[in-house]
Amino acid sequence: MHDGLTRGRTTAGGRNYPVPGGMLETAENLRRQYGISRREQDELAVTSHQRAVAAQKNGILAEEIIAVPVRTRNGEELIDTDERPRADTSIESLSRLKPVLLGDDPEATVTAGNASGQNDAASMCLVTTPEKADEYGLTPLVRLVSWGQAGVAPNVMGIGPVPGTDVALAKAGLQLSDIDLIELNEAFAAQALAVMREWNFGVADRERTNVHGSGISLGHPVGATGARMLATLARELNRRQARYGLETMCIGGGQGLAAIFERVGSR
Predict the structure, then answer these.
(1) Pairwise CA distance, residues 221 & 186, whole Å
(2) Rounded Cα gap, residues 231 and 226, in angstroms
(3) Domain 16-267 - what CATH class?
């Protein structure tokens, strides 16, 4: 018997193209390839937590959460807030964390603080046609414009969003500059930074990316993250009355997926 999720994290690339250090090693590979410092990774992690905490305080994240009653030793508890975002996260606190692969690589930089959380969660989204939405009295938030997938080397799986996004943009006839909001899953800070380097992102571009936090601050519950990102993206597009949103993530084994959405009523 074995846990499939745990094994998957340590055997990234599968039987034929194993990555010795697993998913962590793929992040370290991108860190080396793109010259990403530990400081940069920790800074992104701090920003992620700050944005998530602010969104919680402002009630923004509450709009996409359904409270769940949980039985505990002290009775029933209502879980209505994500537990991972930490207001006390700082460069100083993160700098004290030891890199996970330090024993194998003296230059390792990936820590529990600048990587996504292994959280439990569930998420859902309702996909239908305009006709069915009218029939049931539903108000659509966004429409799917295009989507794309691409393969990359398993040992740098985290760069997958770049070619995946290229495919989605080409199908939609858009440029990355046309996108108002971006949800780029933070599997690792090094991975997200590598993608943004490929995109030549500056400060202004980061202001439209993961505006309410991402995997590092909110967690990365595998199998639920995609719909969670879409819930955030769809609501924020409507909140800002913006038009286009991009959702993209890397996938262990060497894949990149991306989808472009348009706010309903924005044309």
Answers:
(1) 12
(2) 9
(3) alpha beta
Quick one: 129 exposed, middle or buried, by C-beta within 10 A (0-12, 13-18, 19+)? exposed
Identify any residues that bridge with 250 across adjacent strands, giving them in sequence order: 256
Helical packing angle, 189-198 and 161-172, nearest 10°: 40
Q: What are phi and psi of 231, to 5 degrees?
A: -60, -45
Where do the structural domains in the chain lie, given as residue ranges?
A: 16-267
pLDDT digits (tens, 9 = 90+) for 105-121: 999 999 999 999 989 99
How much is the pTM?
A: 0.92
Rounded to 5 degrees, what are φ and ψ at 266? -85, -10
Does residue 197 surpass a pLDDT of 60? yes
Q: Residue 174 burial by CB count (10 A; 0-12/13-18/19+): exposed, middle or buried?
A: middle
Q: Give the separation between CA 208 and CA 133, rounded to whole angstroms.
A: 29
- Beta strands 244-251 and 181-184: pairing type? parallel
